[in-house]
Structures
1.
Amino acid sequence: KRCIDAWRVRLDASSLERAASNPRKVSDMSQCGQEGLDGAPRSGYAMAEVSQALEEVLSRTSTKPAVRVSIQEVHVGGRMASDVVATSPHPDFDASIKDGYAVVSEDDAGKRRIVGEVRCGHVVRVEEGQEDAGFVLERGEVAYVTTGAPIPPGADAVVEVESTVDQGDGYVHIARKVDKGNDIRKRGSDVQVGETVLSTGDALGAAELALLATLGVGQVDVHAKPVVAILSTGDELVEPNTNPLPRGKVRDCNRAMLMALARSAGAKVLDLGIAGDYPQALDELMDAATMAGADAVITSGGVSMGDRDLVKPMLHRRGKIHFGRLNMKPGKPCTFATVDSPATPEGNSKQMLCFGLPGNPVSSWATFHLFVLPMLRKMAGWPNPHLRRVHVKLAHTVKTDPVRPEYQRSVLEWMPPSDDMPCGGFLARSTGGQSSSRISSARSANALLELPAAKGYIPEGSVVSALLVDDLGNMPETELQPMTSSSVVCQ
């Protein structure tokens, strides 16, 4: 209770009455009319709720098949497509944890004869001077060992080199007696034979790849990368390197942004460029995506209500639109459709998943994270492709939209423990003006605040939910001190 407050949204009585008498419930996400000004253009699509729309996307998303690749070629963040079971233990032998001397634990401290040395990859008996000759340690004898080297037969403990004095005549003084097993890492103590070390759906990072290499697994089954075709629409768009900028033209920023987001999600990206505002241009680029075997197509722009907004008609003509409007801000005109593609070489039918994202950069950015990213995650084999949700404390008062739920860009930082949050927690700061055309508001954002539709505001200090859109590695630094020994319960 001290760490999580309830939302304190201040509503006027009339807005509560309107909400009660006009519930926004959509039972059919296909074609639906809309009230409006007589004679004015009206959308033919129901206003879908975000959660409903996301489930629609994921229900039509298939996980990519498995491919076998070398561990040197695995995409970091890729997902396992099969389990890996250890066929050998690790370590494969009893190994020394430190540089020192292998000893017989029954011996007391004192002068001991050095009969050999065992280094990583080499075993030498001193008297014979032959590599890999091997020997069995007896009481009163020791052998020099290096970190990670096998424990010679007969030895059952290691004394670290700091507790010894080399006497220079083939003998060493052992300064202390140690217990059996001291500084020995036992065979199979890290991984045992038959142990499942990685499971289907596990993410592959640097540590996982090192584990596979350690166990002799040079190739793994991972889910293939989704292939995503990306294009922008609009006669006003020009390439980013256009200088000087002609009057009335706009540099295309959405395509570079969406390509970067798709690549960061592990997708293979096809750049289809810019389509002008005429049907043939869109059809040609969609044909190119189909011929390239794209799993998904992402367009930006051309999904609103203007006479040159051609993406929805194109998707309706070529496939089936599953939603064409969303009850959210920003991103209301976001569209999702499926389009049939030629059968795969195996004869399987295939559908391209197509997103018509809004042209405003922030709307495009937000709807990518809310819908496209979970789709790509499911394709890539994520067991749970949803964005992760956390509770955050507002650093300032936030105004809410009276009509639509809003996803506001924010920067999360860690707040040290305080009287009202003794465990600490995330503090959310707005990125500034939330206009859907202000792409700078997404520049440093690592979360989307989930704000309800309500006429009013949420006061500073309230706790709300937020969806993570970044790994928090670039989270603002806070002055936190490391844990001290005073926090340890002594035994």
2.
Amino acid sequence: MNYDFRHAKYLEMVDMVKLREADIHDLKKFIAEGEKKLKLQKSLYEQVRADRNFFSKKHVQSRDEIAEMKQKFKIMKHQIEQLKEEIQMKEIQLINAHFTWVNFILCT
């Protein structure tokens, strides 16, 4: 009877070991899936980070270009104002020269 009890206990322990091995196998699968998901998340994170850095750099470049264009626009606006003043002065000189010529012709 002692042998039967020990044999039954042995078989029970063998079944328990098989169940534990099955649990270990399931946990290993679960861990492998988690590591796979983690690797994917890391990859996606790196891609987003690379995109952010790229667009941040483009944003800075665009701001610099806008600042440069504003400066050029300011310079061109000043040049246009100078040219307008020159045109007005030359028109006045032309009108004065015309009246001087007319007066010269009328006086002679």
